[in-house]
Structures are given as C-alpha cells and as structure tokens.
TrEMBL record:
Key words of the record: 4Fe-4S, Iron, Iron-sulfur, Metal-binding, Oxidoreductase, Repeat
Family matches, as Pfam families: CCG, Fer4_8
Name the record gives this protein: Glycolate dehydrogenase, iron-sulfur subunit GlcF
Known EC number: 1.1.99.14
Keyword Acyltransferase attributed: no
Taxonomic lineage: unclassified sequences, metagenomes, ecological metagenomes
Length: 410
C-alpha cells in the first residue's frame, strides 16, 4: 500500500473502540498504542508526517500478532490486516542497514525449499544434547528460543507426485506442503494424504511449490510474497484440480487471498467436512478428553473452525471440549513467538492455565505456529498432554475394511 492508500483506508476507522476487548496485545500491555485503534491513529500520524517513524513508534506495529480478531468485531469493516501489512512495508522501504538486511535474509531462507530440507536433515542428525549446547552458546536470543520450540525432527520425507485414492468415486486435489510444516509437521501432512485417499481423493503434491508468502507479507516484504504466490499458482495450475488443500491454517488464510487461484483453496478439515464419507470408512472409539484450540486464521479469516468439531465429533466415545478462552490468540502470531517473546509468553500462560483447568489428554490445533508454541509450553510446564493436528487424530482412528494406506517415501 502507498502512504496515500494507508491514509484513505485508515479513515474508515471511527475510533469507536469495539476492537479493544478483542485485541490480545492490548489485553497484555493495556497500552492504547498496542490496540488496533491506537495503531491506526499512529499510522495516520506517520503517513501524514505528524510523527516520524521512530523505532519506538514502529515497535507498536511490530507487536501486532496479526490475529485479525479486531476485524471480526469492527462495525465499520476496517481492513486492519491490510493496513498493518502496508505500514510494515512502508517501514521496510524507509529502513536501511543491518537490521533490514537480516530481515530479508531470514525471510528469503523460507522461500528456498532446498535449504529448508537441508536444515531439517541437519536437525534430524543433531542429538538433543548438541542442541542444548547450542542453546547455552546463544544465550537468551531468538536462536535459543527457536531451538527450544523444536519438536523431535524426523528425517525429511521424499514426497511422491501422486497419492492415488482408495475406491472408485475419485476426485483430484492438490496438497500444499508449506515451508515450516515440512520440517515440523510431516505427520500432519501424511495424515492429510491418508484421510483424503480414504475419502476417494487422488492427491497431487506439486514438486515446484514454495512457501505461501504469508510471513513475507506480514514481515513487510510484499514483493517477495507476490513472487512466491506466482510460483505456487504455476505449480498448482499444471493440471485440473477440484481443490487446493492446506494443512496449516496460517498458510490457508494467506492462500485464500491469492488472485486467480486455479482451484478453490480449503483447509483440510473444512474439505473433509464437505466430501461424502464412504459407508465402509469408520472411526474407532476413543475414550479420551480432547480439547480443541482454534487458531486465529481458522476462526477469523477462513471462518471454518466449526469443521474441526464436526469431524472429531464423529469419533465414538470422544469427550470433545472447546479450550477456554479460545477466542484469544495463543501468542504465536507467525514469527511473533520469536520476535515478541514477552507478549507470546504472557498469552501462552493464559492457555496453559486453561489446560490445567480442563485437563485434556489431547490438545488439537490446526496451525503450525500454534502447535509449536503450545507444545513447547506444555513440555516446559511438565504437563502430560499430547499435541496433534485434528487430521492426525482422525487418521489415527480411521479404518477401512480390506484397505491399506498409500505408502510414503522415506
């Protein structure tokens, strides 16, 4: 967005304050500058020249988690997400020096699938005690925090180009892998393929796909985000598809906004909720208490959180509950769990308190960042709660008489 576009769009805000009770950063800091209303006032002052873009001022924009809960509450339909992305782009264009270069390097690494796979292999080969040594060497910085968030890294999967469906009533979908998901959430991707195959979906995995670009857009690099989007549009446009399936809701929320999508984009649970289930596909009973965490992108942008409850509700004997304070962001917010640790941890503490109160056996969530953030907090708190993607739980319980799972290349 240009400064003129930021000015005209921000004028839609009437400063009513309906957004304040829904904003997680305002809940933590109680600082007007950390509310949507306050940030809009600040960006208006910056683009008008009334205030200079100081580091202290831009810190208010950086603390925004991008949850977009404010948009759901706004009576004036202010596109706050576009505004915060626009002002971060403006900041990056005006900023120079080492910090700007570091931001570009970090974001560009996510755009290189080869580097991500190489990093995953390195992490898989690195013993836990070596990672602990690295944490001590890096002190209290972002690298130490990133290492502490890592789950047990498995050897990277060699994805096939096609996973054929089970059964005769077949449709064809494409699976978006994501960047971080390929390293930390391979089990969820495999479970998605298993469930899609069981429900009669041939699954194509385009080899030329790249990062969705969400982190780049929210990090003030829209040009890079647009280039990544174009590469994905080409990769998924090579053959006719019924749908493009995403497993990480953060990726899904961003891909939903692509122009000229070759097929409708669906979160995997939303898609599984729409297709007919064959009569011979059954779910084993599960006598467990399962809490559902609704990621912000799934609730506020995709608006498909209900599909998770409907799907898991099919499992016999399950005790399914909504995690208390589900309307509040967990604090992950893209890269904010690394760059804004105080806010991320304050919001995580609220989630951990809810988990201690409801005492589930399993916590399910549909977003990679949420999963990493919550799982790390659960480990550090010593809670015995398994963290899964909803599709993993479905795949664990599903069975079809006489059918086998399409294999995965190791």
């Amino acid at each position: 967005m240009t400064p003129e576009e930021i000015a005209s769009t921000s004028d839609l805000c009437v400063k009513c304050g309906f957004c304040l009770p829904h904003c997680p950063t305002y809940k933590v800091t109680l600082n007007e500058g950390d509310s949507p209303r306050g940030r809009i006032a600040l960006m208006q002052a910056v683009v008008s020249g009334a205030l200079s873009g100081s580091t202290q001022l831009y810190a208010h924009f950086d603390r925004c988690l991008g949850c977009r809960a404010c948009e759901a509450a706004c009576p004036s339909a202010v596109p706050y997400g576009n505004l915060i992305d626009g002002v971060r782009d403006l900041r990056n264009r005006r900023r120079s020096g080492f910090r700007s270069l570091l931001n570009k390097v970090a974001l560009n690494l996510l755009a290189k699938p080869v580097l991500l796979r190489a990093g995953a292999r390195l992490l898989h080969a690195c013993p836990r005690n070596s990672l602990a040594t690295l944490m001590r060497l890096f002190g209290d910085g972002n690298v130490k925090r990133a290492i502490s968030l890592l789950p047990d890294i498995v050897s990277p999967v060699g994805w096939k180009s096609l996973y054929p469906a089970i059964g005769s009533n077949r449709k064809h979908v494409g699976l978006f892998l994501g960047c971080v998901s390929q390293v930390s959430d391979q089990a969820a991707l495999q479970a998605a393929i298993q469930m899609l195959n069981r429900l009669g979906q041939d699954v194509t995995v385009p080899s030329d796909q790249v990062c969705c670009g969400a982190l780049h857009l929210h990090g003030g690099e829209p040009q890079t985000a647009n280039k990544l989007a174009e590469r994905n549009l080409i990769a998924f446009g090579e053959r006719p598809l019924e749908a493009i399936i995403t497993v990480a809701s953060g990726c899904g929320a961003h891909i939903k906004g692509y122009e000229r999508l070759p097929a409708p984009a669906y979160d995997v649970c939303a898609y599984l909720d729409t297709v007919p289930w064959p009569n011979d596909v059954m779910l084993q009973p599960l006598q467990s208490r399962v809490a559902v965490h609704d990621p912000c992108g799934l609730r506020n942008t995709l608006e498909t959180a209900g599909a998770v409850y409907r799907l898991l509700g099919k499992i016999p004997d399950i005790e399914l509950i909504q995690l208390p304070n589900n309307e509040l962001c967990c604090g992950a917010g893209g890269a904010n769990l690394l760059t804004q640790p105080q806010i991320a941890d304050a919001l995580l503490d609220l989630k951990l308190a809810s988990l201690r109160n409801c005492r589930p056996d399993i916590l399910v969530t549909s977003n990679t960042g949420c999963s990493l953030h919550l799982a790390a907090g659960i480990r550090q708190a010593g809670l015995e709660i398994e963290v899964l993607h909803p599709v993993q739980l479905l795949a664990r319980q599903v069975y079809t008489q006489g059918a086998s799972d399409g294999g995965f290349a190791g």
